[in-house]
Amino acid sequence: MQKITPFLWFDNQAEEAMNFYVSIFKNSKILSVTPGPNGTVMSVTFQLEGQEFMALNAGPQFKFTEAISFFVDCESQAEVDELWEKLTEGGEESRCGWLKDKYGLSWQIIPTALGEMLNDKDPEKSKRVMEAMLQMNKIDIKTLKQAYEQQYRSSPRRM
Predict the structure, then answer these.
(1) pLDDT of residue 156
(2) Does the global pTM surpass 0.85?
């Protein structure tokens, strides 16, 4: 078992959510299902891309908020598109690569290229990329690259 494991509190959808997440992420597996009373499921453990998670069916007292989200580093636009489509099904889109899935859990679906461009040593390039990203829901790498590569134009005040 890993030292720190995210623990998710569900009303009664822990097993359903686990199956949903495992179906979305390619390198994933169910580790255990612990039975509860009357044929219900009490808790589950699973792995997504090597990260272990635990989930509990514990009632409606607590809900997920955006204060906690899962950041997914995506290598390509195809991966961004696929995860965005699957995770927003029944959920909702938000800005700057954030979304809530149908269980109310927040995710950040972010291409590696965004971090690379934002950390460029040229502050004007990274500023243009940030401005482009702030206009997006799902992150579009092509649009970010266009902003990144645009030639800087001085404003009249800067001449």
Answers:
(1) 47
(2) yes
